[in-house]
Amino acid sequence: YVARLAGLPRPVVQRAEELLAALENGDGRREAAQPGAPQLALFAGADAGLREELAALEPDEMTPLEALRKLYDLAKRARR
Fold first, then answer.
1. 17-52, pLDDT tens digit by residue?
2. Taking CA 9 as the corner, what is the angle to CA 7 and CA 15, rounded to the nearest 5 degrees?
3. Can you give the pLDDT at residue 4?
4. What does the alpha-carbon distance between residue 70 and residue 54 come to, in Å, rounded to a whole number?
């Protein structure tokens, strides 16, 4: 339930539910990942623009104040 509220991708929530059901049914053995199950990136939904902007930064050429302002700007945009 919390995973859905947090906005995790549906396949991640489904797999977690499968694993939980197996544990609750007493099937305590560990399973390998399902064949062909894709590895989901944690930040797959992250804004590509933020990533590009971050990659283009030249921290060595910024003053501490410029860097701090940029960090606050990026953090604010990432929270949206």
1. 888 888 888 765 655 556 666 665 655 555 678 888
2. 120
3. 76
4. 9
Structure tokens at 76: 């604010």
Q: Is the pTM for the entire model greater than 0.85?
A: no
Domain definitions of the chain by residue range? 1-45, 46-80
Q: What is the DSSP string of 4-46?
A: HHHT--HHHHHHHHHHHHHHHTT--SPPPPPTTPPPPPTTTTS
CA distance 34 to 36: 6
What CA–CA distances, in Å, run from 48 to 6, 36, 43? Answer: 20, 26, 10
End-to-end CA distance of the chain: 22
